[in-house]
């Protein structure tokens, strides 16, 4: 019968492995199991503890059963997105204590159960978006997820957020909510999360926007709102809240605003004194810039330092007002990007008030040379250091250079992807210019129009056939995608450290092209001259040092002491002893595996079948599967009235049952010597115990211990004494 039972077990295991291989060929004997898009209707059988990543996305699975993942205890990532999952047994994920990523997005879950996530202590990333639940329940489904870092939730039917829905979450790196149909938000719901680095919410209900902002002023660093029609908010966004606030960046994507709403928003956002960056992407403005500039100016200066506007949609943009009266709001700006938004000019009067601006990006707009004189007039942009005018409608390089020469502090200029076509012999540039990008500008040659003091020059993707300029300060030169047949000479650019000449017509190199400073005139350190030798010597020395440290650590048991210190620190964070109501066992038994036959078949039978019976805690039987060994040991000792050591030669030779006894020794004897019962299964000298267990050696010399006798009559006395010790 035993042989038949073994055969049936082996046959069952083989059949499950064959089923797994048949259902998912890419899952055989691999830590990564890719079963996506296989047409599966259920989780395949035969999943083992070897698997760390399981991808079951894009199948037809509709139910997750308790037993489906029971053996996959080492899973780190479980991908179940884009199935038809409508139900999950409450304990389906309980064995997955090591799981870090769970993706249940785009399924058919009509509700979320807190029981699903109750044992996912290591979970960091949870994706629940794209299901059919309307709310998160009456309480928090996430209360056990203490390590959660990113959370994605919501769907087109998601309509309500309640207070308490996020209890248990203290910190999130990213929170993404699809609230496109969110109609109810209980004030204070998001306040329970103390810190959120980046929050993204899809929100169409403009009334809820203000309530959410008030709740997250002290927690969110970057708020991103999509698809909102910005309201004309009358009430303060701050109300009774006091600083310091945490929110620093606010992004609107695909939002809709009017002249009235944007005027009111500028006033209200000034109350958030921590706000430093505003961003608008793919937003539509209905209006002509008739903003309430007097109200805006009277509300005080703005604290925002960076504004980014990309792909702004403005009907009849050519009728847009010049924003006269906004001068007081731009004095503190340090960075401004307006890209792909049909900008064709900036009034000179306005440009002169950007007194603190360091970075200006106008790429992919409609700036032409006729309007550039107005945009960069005398006295405009006085502090500007970086200017990007790429992808505009500039035609004259000479006029462009003359306009930029009015910028006294300009060091970086990008005018690439403009169709200049020609290049004059002489140009007037800012004296401070160090970086110039002229790539893709259709210039046929390079002349002395290029400023002599440049350090970085990019003339890639033009029609250059040669490069012969003398640029003594140049360090980087980019000549990619030209028509060069020879390298530029080394003498005119003596300080060059980087040269890119990819995709040209170079066929050969001459010796003269590589002539430069002679080796004799170059001063190099021994490291530069003999780098391979120096690196080899360093590697040998590092190896010998590591070898020495390993030897010293082995001789003096350094690793043991480190582990003991860590165990002590862990123990100190817990209460000294569990309350009486939490005591579950009469004794926790610490023994060597070689003595398991006597412990499990003799001692356990005698004690657990006594009248009244004793309840013993054995690591084989009572430790929680999947739980960290340290936590199992700590919990078992604290929930036991006594700790019973079964000592033998095997016990000593096995490093005192390794980590289990390391902690037991340190914890028990640091607290109370009376909690330990010593049973000698065979004679053992106290001097045979390793010296680092000094307290246990002392106890063996001073305290009475029980010794297992050979005779049956004496054994009966032994059991009576042991039972008496356990009861004391």
Structure characteristics:
TLR21 protein; Rossmann fold; transmembrane signaling receptor activity; triacyl lipopeptide binding; 20-stranded parallel β-sheet; alpha/beta; Leu-rich_rpt_typical-subtyp; 728 residues; five-stranded parallel β-sheet
Offer a quick outline of the entry.
Helices cover about 25% and strands about 15% of the residues. It is an alpha/beta fold. α10 (about 560-570) packs across α15 (about 660-670) and α13 (about 630-640) runs parallel beside α15 (about 660-670).
What does this structure look like?
By secondary structure, this protein is α/β, with parallel strands linked by helices. The chain has a domain at 585-727: Toll/interleukin-1 receptor homology (TIR) domain (Rossmann fold). It has 17 helices and 32 strands. The strands form 5 sheets. It has a 20-stranded parallel sheet, covered by helices on one side. The protein is elongated, with a radius of gyration of 37 Å. Mean pLDDT is 85; it is low at 3-16 and 517-524.
Number of helices: 17
Shape descriptor reads: elongated
Class by SSE composition: alpha/beta
The biggest beta sheet, please?
20 strands, parallel
SSE inventory with pairings:
Blueprint: H1 2-23, E1 32-34, E2 53-55, E3 63-64, E4 77-79, E5 87-88, E6 101-103, E7 125-127, E8 150-154, E9 160-161, E10 171-179, E11 184-185, E12 195-203, H2 206-216, E13 220-226, E14 249-253, E15 256-258, H3 259-269, E16 277-281, E17 284-286, H4 293-298, E18 306-310, E19 313-314, E20 335-339, H5 348-351, E21 359-361, H6 369-375, E22 386-388, H7 397-404, E23 412-414, E24 435-437, E25 456-458, E26 476-478, E27 498-500, H8 526-529, H9 531-555, H10 558-572, E28 585-590, H11 596-608, E29 616-617, H12 619-622, H13 629-638, E30 640-647, H14 649-653, H15 658-671, E31 676-680, H16 694-702, E32 706-707, H17 712-727
Helix pairs in contact: 10-15, 13-15
Domain TIR: 583-726
Family: Belongs to the Toll-like receptor family.
Transmembrane segments: 533-554
């Amino acid at each position: 019968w035993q042989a038949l039972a073994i055969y049936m077990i082996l046959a069952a295991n083989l059949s499950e492995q064959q089923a797994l291989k048949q259902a998912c060929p890419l899952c055989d004997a691999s830590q990564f199991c890719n079963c996506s898009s296989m047409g599966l209707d259920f989780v395949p059988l035969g999943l083992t503890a070897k698997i760390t990543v399981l991808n079951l996305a894009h199948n037809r699975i509709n139910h997750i059963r308790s037993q489906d993942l029971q053996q996959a205890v080492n899973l780190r990532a479980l991908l179940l997105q884009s199935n038809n999952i409508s139900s999950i047994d409450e304990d389906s994920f309980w064995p997955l204590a090591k799981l870090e990523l769970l993706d249940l997005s785009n399924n058919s879950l009509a509700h979320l159960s807190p029981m699903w996530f109750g044992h996912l202590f290591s979970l960091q990333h949870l994706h629940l978006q794209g299901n059919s639940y309307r709310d998160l329940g009456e309480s928090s489904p996430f209360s056990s997820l203490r390590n959660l870092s990113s959370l994605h939730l919501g769907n087109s039917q998601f309509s309500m957020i309640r207070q308490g829905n996020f209890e248990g979450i203290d910190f999130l790196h990213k929170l993404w909510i699809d609230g496109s149909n969110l109609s109810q938000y209980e004030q204070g719901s998001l306040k329970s999360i103390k810190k959120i680095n980046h929050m993204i919410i899809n929100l169409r209900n403009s009334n809820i926007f203000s309530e959410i902002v008030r709740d997250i002023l002290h927690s969110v660093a970057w708020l991103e709102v999509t698809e909102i029609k910005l309201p004309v908010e009358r009430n303060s966004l701050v109300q009774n809240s006091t600083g310091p606030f945490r929110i620093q960046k606010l992004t609107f994507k695909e939002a809709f605003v009017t002249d009235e709403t944007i005027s009111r928003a500028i006033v209200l956002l000034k109350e958030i004194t921590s706000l430093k960056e505003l961003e608008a992407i793919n937003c539509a403005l209905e209006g002509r810039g008739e903003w309430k500039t007097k109200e805006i100016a009277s509300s005080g200066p703005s604290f925002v330092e960076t504004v980014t506007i990309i792909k702004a949609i403005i009907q009849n943009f050519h009728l847009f007002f010049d924003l006269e009266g906004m001068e007081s709001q731009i004095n503190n700006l340090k960075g401004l990007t307006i890209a792909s938004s049909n900008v064709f000019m900036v009034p000179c009067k306005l440009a002169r008030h950007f007194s603190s601006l360091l970075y200006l990006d106008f790429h992919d707009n409609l700036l032409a040379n006729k309007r550039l004189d107005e945009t960069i007039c005398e006295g405009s942009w006085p502090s500007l250091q970086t200017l990007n005018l790429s992808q505009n409608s500039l035609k004259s390089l000479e006029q462009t250079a003359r306009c930029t020469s009015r910028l006294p502090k300009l060091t970086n200029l990008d005018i690439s992807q403009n169709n200049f076509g020609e290049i004059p012999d002489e140009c007037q540039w800012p004296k401070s210019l160090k970086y110039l990008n002229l790539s893709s500008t259709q210039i046929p040659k390079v002349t002395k129009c290029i400023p002599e003091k440049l350090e970085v020059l990019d003339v890639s993707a033009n029609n250059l056939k040669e490069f012969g300029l003398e640029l003594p300060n140049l360090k980087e030169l980019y000549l990619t995608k030209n028509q060069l047949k020879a390298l530029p000479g080394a003498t005119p650019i003596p300080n060059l450290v980087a040269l890119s000449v990819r995709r040209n017509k170079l066929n050969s190199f001459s010796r003269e092209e590589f002539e430069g400073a002679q080796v004799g005139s170059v001063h190099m350190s021994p490291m530069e001259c003999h780098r391979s030798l120096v690196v080899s010597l360093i590697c040998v020395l590092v190896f010998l040092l590591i070898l020495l440290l390993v030897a010293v650590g082995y001789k003096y048991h350094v690793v043991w002491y480190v582990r003991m210190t860590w165990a002590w620190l862990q123990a100190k964070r817990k209460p000294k002893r569990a309350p009486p109501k939490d005591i579950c066992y009469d004794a926790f038994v610490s023994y060597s595996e070689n003595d398991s036959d006597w412990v499990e078949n003799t001692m356990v039978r005698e004690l657990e079948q006594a009248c009244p019976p004793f309840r013993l805690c054995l690591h084989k039987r009572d430790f929680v599967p999947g739980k960290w060994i340290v936590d199992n040991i700590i919990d078992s000792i604290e929930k036991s009235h006594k700790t019973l050591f079964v000592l033998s030669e095997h016990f000593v030779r096995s490093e005192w049952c390794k980590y289990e006894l390391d902690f037991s020794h340190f914890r028990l004897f640091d607290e109370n010597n009376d909690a330990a019962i010593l049973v000698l299964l065979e004679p053992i000298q106290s001097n045979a115990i390793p010296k680092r267990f000094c307290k246990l050696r002392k106890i063996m010399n001073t305290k009475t211990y029980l010794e297992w006798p050979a005779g049956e009559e004496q054994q009966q006395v032994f059991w009576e004494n042991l039972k008496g010790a356990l009861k004391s």
